[in-house]
Design a protein that fits this description.
The complex is a heterodimer of chains A (116) and B (113). With 116 residues, chain A is mainly beta. Chain A has no helices and 11 strands. The chains are: A mainly beta (116), B mainly beta (113). The interface between A and B is medium-sized, with 26 and 24 residues.
Chain lengths: 116, 113
């Protein structure tokens, strides 16, 4: 089992540029979560999907952020245009309903985003 | 979700039991207690969860008080690799599937050699 895969691991971009973060969940998992971690705000839930459908996007900070899940094995988080305050580590996590442990989420290694 | 209160940091000697407390005085009857940890520069990792009974797995034990207002995570024989931030999370069990987790500031556990 390869675990949750995220790419890129590090991204450095300039303010105003579009940034796309990618996530491949664990095969067979039906829930996918995007979190953001900063020193100031800690770990925050941005959005999550069930069976590729967005369930709760109330954590998405503003319209510059968008997330998609075109199929069960791939999701993207896009920031357009990016701003320095978007600098953070972005984590993707997945889980499987029916294990009896509904909130056992498996996290990826994260993408460290720096916006200059 | 109910809020939790944890000490910001703790030290423990290697080989000893590490006991991490968590207060969740406003927990409701259908909310579970979850523990996750985050080792430096890695994603959080699930440790254990419970409702009202004590639980044990290969990583840790979870002791929940009878009134469910507090709990303790026990790492029975701490090693240097257990140095991490430990998060106590209370999460509603809807029965309909998973929910996003609300992380607090956690406890930074430092295992001393």
């Amino acid at each position: 089992d390869a675990g949750v895969i995220q790419s890129p691991r590090h991204e450095v971009t300039e303010m105003g540029q579009e940034v796309t973060l990618r996530c491949k969940p664990i095969s067979g998992h039906d829930y996918l979560f995007w979190y953001r971690q900063t020193m100031m705000r800690g770990l925050e839930l941005l959005i999550y999907f069930n069976n590729n459908v967005p369930i709760d996007d109330s954590g998405m900070p503003e319209d510059r952020f968008s997330a998609k899940m075109p199929n069960a094995s791939f999701s993207t988080l896009k920031i357009q245009p990016s701003e320095p305050r978007d600098s953070a580590v972005y984590f993707c996590a997945s889980s499987l309903k029916g294990r009896g442990i509904y909130n056992e989420q498996f996290f990826g290694p994260g993408t460290r985003l720096t916006v200059l | 979700d109910a809020k939790t209160t944890q000490p910001p940091s703790m030290d423990c000697a290697e080989g000893r039991a590490a006991n991490l407390p968590c207060n969740h005085s406003t927990i409701s009857g259908n909310e579970y207690v979850y523990w996750y940890r985050q080792i430096h520069s890695q994603g959080p990792q699930y440790i254990i969860h419970g409702l009202k009974n004590n639980e044990t797995n290969e990583m840790a034990s979870l002791i929940i008080t009878e009134d469910r207002k507090s709990s303790t995570l026990i790492l029975p024989h701490a090693t240097l690799r257990d140095t991490a931030v430990y998060y106590c999370i209370v999460s509603f069990y809807s029965g309909g599937g998973a929910d996003g987790l609300t992380f607090g500031k956690g406890t930074h556990l430092i295992i001393q050699p």
